[in-house]
Amino acid sequence: MASRLNPYLTFNGDARQAMEFYKEVFGGTLDLNSYGEFGQADAPNADKIMHGMLETAGGFTLMGADNPPGMESEQGGSYSVSLSGDDDAELRGYWEKLSEGGSVSVPLEKQMWGDVFGMCTDRFGVPWMVNISTET
């Protein structure tokens, strides 16, 4: 297996909902494993996600989990997940789904460098950047 670099998102109790949302956005195969499945069946967090992985037909891999008890997480602190390419319809479709119920900080529109670009934070607090390359 070749080495890969994948975003791994941490959530404060809503990883299942977030990962299912991303499956709706991107399609693909979603595998979710709870803390209860890994020996913590009686723990208060047994139904929370210890590890989740979404793999799409387009080659995206997105991982995520709920924060373990006792650890705090700040959503959207120092990262953004970036989507880029030249398939206008595909990327606009992702944008529409990701920004729905969230907030838009930069509208998806043509920018000074010539591409269409936007920034939003989805309803789970994850910041996204979408860049649609245009021909010059």
From TrEMBL:
SUPFAM superfamilies, per database record: Glyoxalase/Bleomycin resistance protein/Dihydroxybiphenyl dioxygenase
Top-level taxon: Bacteria
Domain Glyoxalase/fosfomycin resistance/dioxygenase: 5-130
Matching InterPro entries: Glyas_Bleomycin-R_OHBP_Dase, Glyas_Fos-R_dOase_dom, PhnB-like
Region (Disordered): 61-83
UniProt protein name: VOC family protein
